[in-house]
DNA sequence: AATGAGATCAACCGCGCGTGT
DNA sequence: CACACGCGCGGTTGATCTCAT
């Protein structure tokens, strides 16, 4: 299935590992051109020696406009905790409630932070057990105690998940409704995403990108129109991909509204 | 200043679901 | 109805960064 399995098309082995700036820029451009679907096709057509899967992941987790960079806030943490308590490790679903955050990000956050908290709890429990065996709940971490009681390492195991998400069935209707709402109101949500964009780098980025006008040049340099066996665009090795993107205004092909919103936000 | 441990993040993998033929 | 394909999701791993010793 993956094009690195040598299925069809190119016999080129798929690249793995960290993405280069050129690859990022290229991917961004082709996503804007083709949309966020048909990733295998996109991977082939773009000339990227990556699997569609890899392209999608890179886009979703790193390149997607509206992604929020920076630390998870206290509010977000609270939300994550409560949603995790409700849904278990349905990271993508949880992520939908946290505009600008990816499932991967939340997943990572959960793992690292909950592990820490679980360790703390363990210590607390031990201490309490040794001092007074009667009480069972740690009070200091009031917010987190209820949900992070599952050991973080075990969080990944099905046991923890099922243990923590027993209401899954009861929330089914909720979920479906939410999913529907999520897709139907995607436009709204995207605006929401934009709202949530923190003033970190992304703002600057989109601002810069919105301001530029030169994507056709890139098209030429990549020999767009379908099959691109391309030398990577010339980018200064040290320059962030965004500078490259900026030069070529990558964001103007489709989903115009969406990106307009982003642009507008960035300009505010 | 060196180094080891822990934290964080990006990326990959396998599996399952939805859809088209 | 069965099959193949494309995609998304959850779990895991490995590299890099940060901080304490």
UniProtKB/TrEMBL annotation:
Biased composition (Low complexity): 129-171
GO function term, MF aspect, one: sequence-specific DNA binding
Source species, domain of life: Eukaryota
Keyword RNA-binding part of the UniProt annotation: no
Localisation per UniProt entry: Nucleus
Domain Myb-like: 11-63, 64-114
GO cellular component: nucleus
Major subcellular site: nucleus
Keywords carried by this UniProt record: DNA-binding, Nucleus, Repeat, Transcription, Transcription regulation
UniProt keyword Repeat present: yes
Region (Disordered): 120-191
InterPro entries named in the record: EOBI/EOBII-like_plant (IPR044676), Homeodomain-like_sf (IPR009057), Myb_dom (IPR017930), SANT/Myb (IPR001005)
Residue ranges constituting the HTH myb-type domain according to the UniProt record: 11-63, 64-118
Family matches, as PANTHER family: MYB DNA-BINDING DOMAIN SUPERFAMILY PROTEIN-RELATED (PTHR45675:SF125), MYB TRANSCRIPTION FACTOR-RELATED-RELATED (PTHR45675)
Protein name (record): Uncharacterized protein
Organism name: Triticum turgidum subsp. durum
